[in-house]
Amino acid sequence: MKIKNLLTGLLFLLVSFCMAQEEYPILNRIVTDSAGIFNASELQILSEKLTDFEQETSNQIAVLTIKKLHQETIENYAYKTFGANELGQKGKDNGLLILVSQLDREVRIEVGYGLEPYITDAIASRIIRQIIIPQFKKEQYYEGIDLATEQIINILRNPEAAKEFKEEAQNEGSSIFVKIFVTLFLSVFLSVGAYVIFRSYRSLIASFRGILIGKVSLLYFPFALFAALYPMLFGLVFFFMPLIGIVAIDFEFYPDQLTFLADDLMWLYGLLGILLVLIPVLIAMYSIYTHGDSYKLSWVKSDKRFINKNLSTGFHSAGSSTHSSSGSSYGSGFSSSSSSSFSGGGGSSGGGGSSGSW
């Protein structure tokens, strides 16, 4: 009996919780700032702009900010809130809701049926990514919403602007595809360059190890260095040229932005000394220590067996491969001058729009 009562109680709590989740705010203002991210002046300016636009065109753009979603997707919350308030005019379905969840760091543009030909999913996504999110990352919430609503109003007022914005969105999609293709293509050369550099660097370390244990003579050592460094130059070209291209394409960062580094090349000489001498010598000394070899020098005689085994890759790595081992109140936060006569006109949404996070 006790278990039955306990299960009944839990079921009641679950049903109550689900019913509570289905309650969505009824908006009585065109801008409802429940999260308190706007000050009184910003709230008034934004409300007046959207109210004037509604009176001019009958298109209804509403803004709702909340603190947190509470285990619900922003898409579902926006859709349900849109439906609960019937944003837009009946028969026109010309409503639009911008929903911001501050603590979840998510934003959604929910578009009514009648506005979907103008504010398409691609356009809504572009507005979020390029206008809202950059401002929100700087915690400039008003600026993000103000610029976004300005862009939406411009598109709805001017069909040509919508066409241009749509073409830009389509071009952006094509541009992303081209970037991905070029990046993958350049990555092939980058991988080849990285492989050649690795093989050459291993040969360089072996050269220093060989001279320190008497396997490479002082007479032969310059040739061993050349054999290691020559293919490395080709590897560096194959590595850095594609890398510069990838950075320029994907991050719009170009080499001319680093011209200040050419004013003093001492840093470059120091870097080359560390990479080509200090680090290889330290690795060679560590290898000598782990193998238990003794230090000695050879003036003329070299160990051909050691050279063939450890240095031959330096001659061939550039040209051939080798084998390898394997809820709060929704009316709070407003100035007394805000309009309180806002209500939906019977519009509906089919779930069109876009979401984003910052």
Q: Kindly state the mean pLDDT as a whole number?
A: 80
What oligomeric state is this?
A: single chain
What is the succession of H and E elements? HEHEHEEHHHHHHHE
How far apart the termini lie comes to 51 Å
Instruction: Please work out how many helical segments DSSP would assign.
Output: 10
- Kindly identify the CATH topology of the largest domain: Diaminopimelate Epimerase, Chain A, domain 1
Query: Shape from CA axes?
Result: elongated
Major sheet, described briefly? 5 strands, mixed
**What percentage of the residues does DSSP assign to strands (E)?**
5-15%
- Computed structural class: alpha/beta
Counted up, domains total 2
Poorly predicted runs of 5 or more residues = 14-21, 313-339
CATH architecture of the largest domain, please?
A: Roll
CATH class of the largest domain: Alpha Beta
The share of residues in helices is 55-70%
Strand order of the largest sheet: 1-2-3-4-5
Number of strands: 5
